[in-house]
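> call design_seq(struct)
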């Protein structure tokens, strides 16, 4: 990838037409002032230049805005510009080719998304670059595939946030002399007692704080989340009022490198060797056959193709034995889990504490006891919890404040001690 730059950079057709606008030289080595919450005013359209503020940054500081071509990132970039930041738009290409039949689907990072991001940046008179991150996304895809091969269910969005949007993007921001990056996530950043704190977004239905559990605190300290105090309908209103072409664009819903929304297609394209075998109950009785453990996930109920007269759920995957273990709802509940690769955000965790945990993107948080052990933690649920899945993230909360989290390595299933699976 060629070096980035606002002067003398190889601006191609993806780069907006306002690069010649005067630039201020910034002292990028100067320490950032304490981070504070973005302060929203009641009527942004009547006073757009002060709609939100970030007093921890110098006036007119350069900020790189991740622009995906959707309405959220478009409004985030608009808010930055209206607040007086020297905003640079950046689109991350993932290198995935999308079939013509899938272009209309609600995905991101496609050529049409790049066009929308470029046109919004041009409309806002922002410098813009589309950066090829195919290699970085390739590593993300490799991890995704490997997790399914191991019988786990990956969370690529959390990894993308940590390694790309708030990892690689910060490196690119440094190359551009920027002090911070900004994204369209629905979460709120603040500093209390000198530490970065992350809280749920104001819009509970759109809250994305869970997907940020693994982002290190120093990276969050250089991140702006302009949409955290807004609800989605208001974001669309602002986009329409500002004249943004993405105001009515559908939200992306698929994993960006799985535009078909069927990860099995990606496994087939990658030539993943499947692990076929038997579908068994928790006592080891054979109920049917399957084409590969990779086609299943913990908690799955549909598509099992076994008839027992009662609802069954996938409770365990054993690729090496080719076994998909199923059980009833109670057998699918976990009493505890092991969480590794812990990351704390503005929180110094004691050896033992109680809090709430969210173990997948869309679920109600559960009360747990956390005990730190080595590089991870043993977590016990106050009440058994359904479909706790290795490979997913465990995000710890105190009310609406995200304390941090880690990756679910294993679970303790209800009644597992008595099960004789695979014997």
């Amino acid at each position: 990838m060629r070096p980035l730059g606002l002067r003398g950079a190889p601006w191609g057709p993806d780069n907006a037409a306002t690069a010649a606008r005067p630039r201020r030289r910034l002292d990028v080595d100067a320490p950032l002032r304490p981070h504070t919450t973005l302060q929203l005013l009641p009527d942004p359209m009547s006073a757009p230049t002060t709609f939100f503020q970030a007093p921890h940054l110098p006036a007119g500081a350069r900020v790189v805005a991740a622009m995906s071509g959707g309405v959220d990132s478009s409004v985030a970039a608009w808010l930055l510009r209206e607040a007086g930041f020297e905003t640079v738009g950046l689109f991350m290409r993932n290198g995935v080719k999308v079939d013509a039949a899938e272009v209309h689907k609600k995905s991101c990072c496609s050529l049409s998304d790049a066009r929308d991001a470029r046109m919004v940046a041009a409309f806002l008179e922002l410098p813009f670059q589309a950066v090829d991150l195919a290699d970085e996304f390739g590593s993300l895809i490799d991890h995704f595939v490997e997790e399914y091969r191991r019988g786990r269910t990956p969370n690529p969005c959390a990894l993308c946030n940590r390694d790309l949007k708030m990892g690689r993007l910060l490196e690119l921001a440094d190359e551009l002399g920027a002090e911070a990056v900004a994204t369209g996530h629905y979460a709120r950043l603040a500093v209390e007692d000198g530490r970065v704190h992350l809280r749920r977004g104001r819009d509970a239905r759109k809250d994305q704080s869970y997907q940020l559990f693994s982002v290190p605190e120093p990276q969050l300290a250089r991140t702006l989340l302009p949409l955290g105090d807004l609800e989605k309908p208001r974001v669309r209103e602002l986009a329409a009022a500002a004249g943004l072409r993405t105001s009515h664009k559908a939200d992306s819903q698929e994993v960006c490198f799985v535009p078909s929304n069927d990860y099995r297609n990606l496994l087939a394209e990658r030539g993943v060797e499947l692990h076929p075998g038997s579908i068994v109950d928790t006592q080891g009785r054979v109920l049917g056959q399957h084409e590969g453990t990779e086609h299943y996930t913990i908690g799955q109920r549909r598509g099992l193709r076994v008839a027992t007269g009662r609802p069954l759920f996938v409770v365990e995957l054993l690729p090496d034995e080719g076994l998909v273990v199923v059980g009833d709802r109670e057998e699918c509940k976990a009493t505890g889990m092991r969480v590794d690769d812990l990351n704390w955000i503005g929180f110094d965790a004691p050896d033992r504490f109680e809090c709430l945990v969210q173990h997948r993107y869309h679920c109600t948080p559960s009360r747990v006891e956390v005990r730190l052990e080595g590089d991870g933690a043993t977590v016990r649920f106050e009440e058994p919890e359904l479909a706790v899945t290795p490979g997913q993230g465990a995000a710890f909360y105190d009310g609406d404040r995200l304390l941090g989290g880690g990756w679910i390595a294993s679970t303790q299933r209800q009644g597992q001690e008595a099960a004789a699976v695979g014997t």
